[in-house]
Design brief:
globular, binds hypoxanthine, alpha/beta
Amino acid sequence: MNIINQIKEATDFIKTIYKEKPQVGIVLGSGLGNLSTNIEVEVEIDYNKIPHFPISTVKGHSGKLIFGKMNGKKVAAMAGRFHYYEGYSAQQVVFPIRVLKMLGIETLLISNAAGAMNTSFKVGDLMIINDHISLFTVNPLLGENCDELGPRFPDMSEPYKKDLINKVKSIAFKLNIPLKEGVYAGVTGPTFETRAEYKLLHIVGGDAVGMSTVQEVIAAAHIGLPVFAISIITDIGIREDDNIITHEEVLQAAKDAEPKLTAIFKQLISEL
Ligand code: HPA
């Protein structure tokens, strides 16, 4: 079955359960699932019930779509996302983004955990993503283009919308939450980077690195969906000491910083 029909089947299935049109889509990154406790939940649908949806396996991700209200707005939140390193194709990774768009969302908010190359960043910092480097992972638009979704050669001059970034800056200022801003380098993982790789990613212009997000943002740009994305810095890649990086510390750092992220997302959603 071609991709557009798969998206339609998944969308039609969801509409039999949740009849309303969500306005905002939210992708909850590693250790950030707690944000969903701020949603007045109306319907939850396990990924494994939805036709053509891959199934999330990674620790810290529960794997369901949550529909409900946040600050009065209808939202659809992905609790758990699909990563290329889990063995899914890049097309499978972005499938839910396309379904959310077909359900009617007008804005996509993305969160993730990331390691820092920018030496002014500390664990627990929030970094607005203002651009990305996707050359170290696999482009989800490889293969025959689906013209119904978007153009063969999408423009990527502003994948992270400036007006949303500016809104968040003024929200964070009012809430007294300090923010960093920078370029997110997308990699496949699942290894964390070697010291030499963190250095390389810094030299080519990356401020933070992670194993998600860039494919989702490419699919969103293709389909004409405005994105705001933010990283929680969970570990420092370029560092003097000889400590190691573990998944547990990444999850813990994300969890600790999560209230700041939730406060920003809540306010942003109310202003959309
Ligand atoms: N590298 C890649 N992905 C990550 C990291 C990192 O250091 N931290 C959290 N996700």
